[in-house]
Design a protein that fits this description.
With 186 residues, the chain is mainly α. It contains seven helices and no strands. It has one domain: CDP-alcohol phosphotransferase transmembrane (TM) domain (Four Helix Bundle (Hemerythrin (Met), subunit A), Up-down Bundle). Helices cover 80% and strands 0% of the residues. Helix 1 runs parallel beside helix 3. The longest helix has 28 residues.
């Protein structure tokens, strides 16, 4: 395994994203994401989200795509988003059933990618999947801020349901476009 010192920049950003999950969760739960703890949670989450955007762009533009990055980048993304959503359930800011659907989608896609990989197929992220990720991150940011009334509460709820719909649509799109992978397992 690569040591941190020898890693390229995109892989260091991926590791940073995973490390930021720890203070993010601490700030979310220790202070119930209120006041200064909310601000610190938000800073950690936004910084981690930026590393998600940057590591892929840097890796592709500079030809720095590695096996480590291919494996750890999606894992770091899932760790960040799932940790945030579980904290939000704990704080009663999002219904558990929505989080269950979102996490189930991630398990299904991960399993599907594993089957595809075993058959020598690499499946690229789709527009739907990228849009789903952006909507989930926006939803999490709004729920960390935690609007309790007024027009921003409506925006927060619309974004939550949009993220849920995009999660389901991206799953259906992913499975439909790659249905040949399942037929290989028959």
């Amino acid at each position: 395994m690569e040591t941190f010192r020898n890693m390229n920049l995109p892989n260091k950003l991926t590791c940073l994203r995973m490390l930021l999950v720890v203070p993010f969760v601490i700030f979310m739960l220790a202070g119930r994401a209120e006041g200064a703890f909310m601000v610190l949670s938000l800073v950690c989450f936004c910084a981690a989200s930026l590393t998600d955007m940057l590591d892929g762009k840097i890796a592709r533009s500079r030809g720095l795509i590695t096996d480590f990055g291919k494996f750890m980048d999606p894992l770091a993304d899932k760790l960040l988003v799932v940790s945030a959503m579980i904290c939000l359930v704990e704080l009663k800011r999002i219904p558990a059933w929505i989080v269950i659907i979102i996490i189930a989608r991630e398990f299904i896609i991960s399993g599907f990618r594993l089957i595809a990989s075993d058959n020598g197929i690499v499946i690229a992220a789709s527009w739907w999947g990228k849009t789903k990720t952006v909507s989930q991150m926006l939803m999490i940011i709004l729920m960390i801020i935690h609007f309790t009334d007024g027009p921003m509460l409506i925006v927060q709820n619309v974004v939550m349901y949009a993220a849920l719909i995009l999660t389901v649509v991206s799953l259906i799109d992913y499975l439909w476009k790659n249905k040949n992978v399942l037929s290989m397992q028959s």
